[in-house]
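User: My instructor asked us to take a sequence, write out its structure as tokens, and then describe one feature of it. I'm not sure where to start. Here is the sequence I was given:
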Amino acid sequence: MCVREKCECPLFYGKISYTIDLISTEITVSSPMPPKEIAIQGTHDMALEHVQSLFSPSKDVVILDFGAGQGALSLRLHDLGYTVKACDYFPDDFQVENIECRKSGDDLKIPYDDDSFDLVIAVELVEHIDGHLTFFKEVQRTLRKGGKFLLTTPNILSLKSRILFLFTGYFYSFNSLNPDVHDPVSQHLAPFTLDRYRFILQRAGLKLIRIHTDKLQSSSKFLLFLYPLIKLVSRMKFGENPRVTEQNSLTMLLGRKIILVSEKNTPTTEKI
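Assistant: Let's start with the prediction itself. The structure tokens for your sequence are:
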């Protein structure tokens, strides 16, 4: 608000009139900034859609957000009505009150009890770690019977990524690694294919049940003329192998991210 006031100032030989604009400043205290989504815009929206397709919102559904960062996804899950726990390499960065965030270190142990969760989420995490079998076994241990594991990661099998690797030696979203940097958040370490994720998940006691992508890359669409050649060479090399066919499907050739959902296997008792 601005107030104008007229003043008169006496001088030795008369007086001078002038006006002063008095400005009153209103000071407001803003609310704390919400936690930041540390991922490509829209990634959390996509993750939430898949979560709700697996479990309807309920306090009875307990979810672990592994690699929670500042807690943006944890907060949205909580607001939808789920019971949420969190875990991160840097738990002090977590900004959401009333949600517990425990620390996980280089050993990738999950600091929660067996059979604790209906769903474990790892959004844009697995490309940052080394030791996937250990981590996936921890996921399997902490999941309840029939529990699900949802992960998202950059898709190195897209046509764009394959061309980048051909000419540069590096896949899409993966750069040269700096051996002097030990912060796992700062670098993408693990460019794994769909075939390798399936293999490690199965070894850890997790059965892959869904394969999705978030969006189709325009640059990969431009390279789609290579699709018949890829199918031909794959068939000549591997025959009618369903895993090879899936690895070279249009979802993998065009998708930007891989979205995988796996389920905790129920141990079977051998008959004697």
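For the description part of your assignment, you could build on this observation: Residues 43-216+256-264 form a domain with the Rossmann fold fold (CATH 3.40.50.150). Try explaining in your own words what that tells you about the chain.
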